[in-house]
């Protein structure tokens, strides 16, 4: 276990915000996590704050953190296992601090299928289970098999199955009732050696047609390369331009609200969603009245309001993707928050819809 005092978090958040924490602790094993749980039970009695941090790709820091930041060691640590009663199954048990995209690259290169649509999503394996990350028609809940944790309230090692996590659109119990309760040490993904590509989302099929790649020629590696190309064409590299990827969640509305919007905005974009596929938190946000709800792309609304490509001081909205807020250099977390609020107000005034940040604001 490694400890640092009065530590800068600049290299630990992709927005590039230079905030300090009182103490920065890196755990390197399950035993380290258990030791931290024991420490934390004592700290709670003294009302000491703590923050569980992954790669910082879904985090906006607005001030110095007066407390302890806990994060897993950054290393590639993946164990393979097969289950003989399922001829196509392959399980990858990954250390929480392993870069998620490194695992996707590893899987694709070995012919393990199911993760390729999640290529180039920033962050670490531990955080993937918290956020229920998703892209191009696939969410982490679709391939998640097991989550190994240490319960901070008891110091005990606890394995959690995905069915108990109440996964929904960018939601899980880890973000709500389980917030700050568990240190995740390992995540196991269930993949397959049988390739069944998901091509129904976005412009994947269009790109395949343009590149004259038939479904029979497609492999996990080819599909991964295509998704990387698409994402790089739309999203900025955090090493060049500070950002946290998609800043806002896409809101969902019921049929009555959708009909009203179509009357006012005939060209509005929307996608039908089955309520049964949503988590409880996402359902609560829709105020739905039926079995179907409709997802409205927040990026489309932000663009409609004239924000795409607009800069305000050291912050702005990315010119290729209106969902992405960027730090042009030297911005504070509060600068990003001010921009967020201005965008939220314009969207609400125009559409009567509240857009909620996907990013964790501290």
Automatic annotation (TrEMBL):
Cofactor(s) listed: FAD
Family stated for the protein in its record: Belongs to the MurB family.
PROSITE patterns recorded: FAD_PCMH
Pathway: Cell wall biogenesis; peptidoglycan biosynthesis
A Gene Ontology biological process term: cell division
Protein name as it appears in the record: UDP-N-acetylenolpyruvoylglucosamine reductase
Principal subcellular localization: cytoplasm
Molecular function terms from GO: FAD binding; UDP-N-acetylmuramate dehydrogenase activity
Enzyme superclass (EC): oxidoreductase
Stated role: Cell wall formation.
Domain FAD-binding PCMH-type, chain residue ranges per copy: 17-194
Catalytic residues (UniProt): 170, 246 (proton donor), 358
Catalytic function, reaction form: UDP-N-acetyl-alpha-D-muramate + NADP(+) = UDP-N-acetyl-3-O-(1-carboxyvinyl)-alpha-D-glucosamine + NADPH + H(+)
Signal peptide region: none
InterPro entries referenced in this protein's UniProt entry, alphabetically: FAD-bd_PCMH (IPR016166), FAD-bd_PCMH-like_sf (IPR036318), FAD-bd_PCMH_sub1 (IPR016167), FAD-bd_PCMH_sub2 (IPR016169), MurB (IPR003170), MurB_C (IPR011601), MurB_C_sf (IPR036635), Oxid_FAD_bind_N (IPR006094)
Matches recorded under Gene3D superfamilies: 3.30.465.10, UDP-N-acetylenolpyruvoylglucosamine reductase, C-terminal domain, Uridine Diphospho-n-acetylenolpyruvylglucosamine Reductase, domain 2
One term under GO cellular component: cytosol
Gene from which the chain derives: murB
EC number per UniProt: 1.3.1.98
Superkingdom assignment: Bacteria
Localization per Swiss-Prot or TrEMBL: Cytoplasm
Keywords: Cell cycle, Cell division, Cell shape, Cell wall biogenesis/degradation, Cytoplasm, FAD, Flavoprotein, NADP, Oxidoreductase, Peptidoglycan synthesis
């Amino acid at each position: 276990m490694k400890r640092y005092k009065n530590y800068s978090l600049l290299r630990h958040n992709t927005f590039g915000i230079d905030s300090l924490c009182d103490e920065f602790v890196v755990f390197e094993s399950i035993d380290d996590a258990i030791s931290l749980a024991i420490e934390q039970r004592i700290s709670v009695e003294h009302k000491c704050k703590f923050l569980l941090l992954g790669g910082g790709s879904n985090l906006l820091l607005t001030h110095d953190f007066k407390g302890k930041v806990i994060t897993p060691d950054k290393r590639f640590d993946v164990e393979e296992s097969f289950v003989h009663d399922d001829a196509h199954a392959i399980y990858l048990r990954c250390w929480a601090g392993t870069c998620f995209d490194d695992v996707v690259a590893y899987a694709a290169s070995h012919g393990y299928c199911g993760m390729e649509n999640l290529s180039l999503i920033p962050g670490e394996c531990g955080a993937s289970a918290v956020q229920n990350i998703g892209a191009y028609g696939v969410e982490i809940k679709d391939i998640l098999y097991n989550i190994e944790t240490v319960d901070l309230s008891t110091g005990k090692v606890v394995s959690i199955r995905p069915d108990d996590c109440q996964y929904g659109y960018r939601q899980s119990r880890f973000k709500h009732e389980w917030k700050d309760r568990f240190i995740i040490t390992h995540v196991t993904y269930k993949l397959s050696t049988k390739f069944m590509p998901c091509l129904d989302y976005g412009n994947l099929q269009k790109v395949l047609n343009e590149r004259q790649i038939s479904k029979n020629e497609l492999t996990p590696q080819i599909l991964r390369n295509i998704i990387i190309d698409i994402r790089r064409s739309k999203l900025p590299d955090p090493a060049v331009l500070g950002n946290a990827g998609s800043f806002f969640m896409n809101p969902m509305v019921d049929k009555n609200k959708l009909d009203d919007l179509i009357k006012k905005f005939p060209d509005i974009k929307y996608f039908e969603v089955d309520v049964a596929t949503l988590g409880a938190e996402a359902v609560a946000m829709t105020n739905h009245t039926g079995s179907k709800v409709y997802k409205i792309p927040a990026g489309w609304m932000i663009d409609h309001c004239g924000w795409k490509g607009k800069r305000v001081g050291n912050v702005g909205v990315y010119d290729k993707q209106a969902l992405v807020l960027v730090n042009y250099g030297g911005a504070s977390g509060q600068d990003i928050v001010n921009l967020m609020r201005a965008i939220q107000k314009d969207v609400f005034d125009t559409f009567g819809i509240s857009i909620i940040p996907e990013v964790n604001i501290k």
